[in-house]
Amino acid sequence: MQTAQQKATVACAHCGRLNRVDLARAADGPKCGACGNPIVLDRPMRLTDAVFDRVVADSAVPVVVDFYADWCGPCKMMAPVLDQVARERSGRVLVAKVDTDANPMLARKFSIASIPTLITFSGGAEVGRELGALPKPRLDALIDRALR
Fold first, then answer.
1. Is residue 49 packed enough to be buried (19+ CB in 10 Å), middle (13-18) or exposed (0-12)?
2. Is 35 among the residues known to form the active site?
3. Structurally, how many domains does the chain consist of?
4. How many other C-beta atoms lie within 10 A of the C-beta of residue 53?
5. For 105-125, how does the pLDDT look when each residue is reduced to its tens digit (9 = 90+)?
6. Which residues have C-beta within 8 Å of that of residue 72, sequence separation ≥ 6?
7. How many H-runs (helices) and E-runs (strands) does the chain carry?
8. Residue of 12, 32, 35, 75 marked active site
9. FRET partner for 18 with CA separation of 20 to 30 A, picked from 6, 36, 58, 129?
10. Nearest to residue 98, comparing CAs of 47, 51, 134, 59?
11. Can you tell me whether residue 54 is helix, strand or coil?
12. Which pTM does this prediction carry?
């Protein structure tokens, strides 16, 4: 029996080109159609004002987005937790990061008043939000709610 495809649009970390990938085949090592570099799905991807809406709207799986800043101590504490979740849930959830200093339009659009702020999206719509550094069980619960 064939499994349903789980498509998502992701930006290449090397050239920025948007690529449509089948997340069910994430372990096969998708490559960018423009530059040929690997599209890595087992770590958080960086999103920008330019690609955010397309990536979130086109994803057939939930997307968890960490709104952060490089200078933020609690944000730095979240990084290894997000890395772990991205590895564990590769192909079932997209984990992304938005630098609020570099992408102020997104920070305003989502009324980010404190960082880190983690927002989950399903079907392109916000379905959950948590403020502050979260322990992994709370992050897992936030993502699990988006999977329902």
1. middle
2. no
3. 1
4. 13
5. 999 999 999 999 999 999 999
6. 115, 116
7. 4, 7
8. 75
9. 129
10. 47
11. helix
12. 0.91
- Residue 54 within a domain: yes
The model's pLDDT over 4-52, given as tens digits with 9 standing for 90+, comes to 568 999 989 888 899 999 988 888 889 999 999 999 888 999 999 999 9
Structural domain harbouring 120:
42-147
Q: Which of 7, 102, 6, 99 is nearest to 44 (CA)?
A: 99
- Using only the alpha carbons of the chain, give its radius of gyration: 14
Distance (Å, rounded) from C-alpha 7 to C-alpha 22?
Answer: 4
Residues in the chain: 148
* C-alpha distances in Å from residue 133, one per residue of 26, 51, 64, 70: 28, 25, 14, 14
Would you call 75 a catalytic residue per the annotation?
A: yes
Active-site entry in 12, 32, 35, 72: 72
CATH number of residue 121's parent domain: 3.40.30.10
